[in-house]
Inverse folding.
């Protein structure tokens, strides 16, 4: 499949729709493959700008899907109409495919009671789903090797990591050093939603690209995060759109 990418403030963003992203992941599910999916948003890009190691992890991701209204606006400023692909929807669809095809999944992250509830709710929703490994997200660095070994032996193929950014991507990088077959995705607060602890924004908010606004109203402690990131990101995106030439390049999928 022909892959189109665009750089937003130096970070790659794959230009593809939901269906194409699913098809790409489906192809990887069928074979032995190692894949790191990043659902990129302004917060990730701003963090990557400040931390070279994190920047390299994001740069080397195998699929960078545009999540977040900020990315959509940054692309729109260059005349590119890109659909938003929320990581939570992408992950849910892949879980469904795994259940239908007898593919094992793993969940790592969130508080113990949250991950247990999320696991039970997913098992109720998808009758044939095989969750071969779960672990809460509050572990120490010296526990990581054991967790990665357990994950490896669980033979989970689709592995969701919910540790928040940038932690989840650093952890995925570590997993990739010793696991040879797995599709990893950082899913942020998705387990909280699947556990029924946090409500997803109503469809009207999502359609308008305002899920962030709903989440901020419901969790006002998030204001600081958005205030620190979004205005500066949008300012830089405008400057970039004015001064740098449109740079779309095609990359044949290996
Ligand atoms: N979390 C975790 N371990 C940590 C820090 C965070 O498991 O050391 C979890 C936290 O409980 C929550 C998720 O990571 O379930 C992060 O959610 P957040 O809402 O920050 O993610 P977003 O969706 O905004 O990226």
């Amino acid at each position: 499949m022909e892959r189109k990418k665009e750089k937003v403030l130096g970070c790659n963003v794959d230009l593809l729709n939901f269906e194409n992203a699913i098809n790409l992941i489906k192809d990887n599910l069928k074979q032995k493959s190692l894949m790191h999916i990043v659902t990129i948003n302004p917060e990730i890009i701003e963090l990557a700008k400040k931390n070279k190691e994190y920047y390299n992890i994001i740069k080397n991701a195998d699929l960078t899907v545009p999540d977040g209204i900020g990315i959509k606006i940054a692309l729109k400023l260059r005349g590119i109409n890109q659909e938003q692909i929320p990581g939570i929807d992408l992950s849910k669809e892949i879980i469904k495919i795994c259940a239908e095809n007898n593919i094992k999944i793993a969940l790592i992250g969130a508080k113990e009671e949250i991950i247990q509830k999320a696991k039970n709710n997913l098992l109720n929703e998808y009758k044939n789903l095989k969750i071969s490994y779960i672990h809460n997200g509050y572990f120490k660095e010296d526990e990581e090797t054991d967790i990665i070994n357990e994950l490896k032996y669980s033979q989970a193929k689709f592995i969701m990591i919910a540790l928040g950014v940038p932690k989840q991507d650093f952890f995925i990088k570590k997993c990739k050093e010793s696991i040879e077959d797995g599709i990893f995705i950082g899913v942020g607060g998705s387990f909280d939603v699947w556990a029924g602890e946090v409500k997803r924004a109503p469809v009207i908010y999502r359609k308008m690209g305002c899920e962030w606004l709903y989440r901020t109203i419901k969790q006002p402690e998030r204001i600081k995060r958005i205030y620190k990131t979004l205005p500066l990101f949008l300012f830089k995106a405008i400057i970039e759109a004015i001064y740098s030439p449109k740079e779309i390049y095609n990359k044949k999928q290996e």
Observations:
- The longest helix spans residues 223-243.
- The two ends are 9 Å apart (CA to CA).
- The chain has one domain: 8-246.
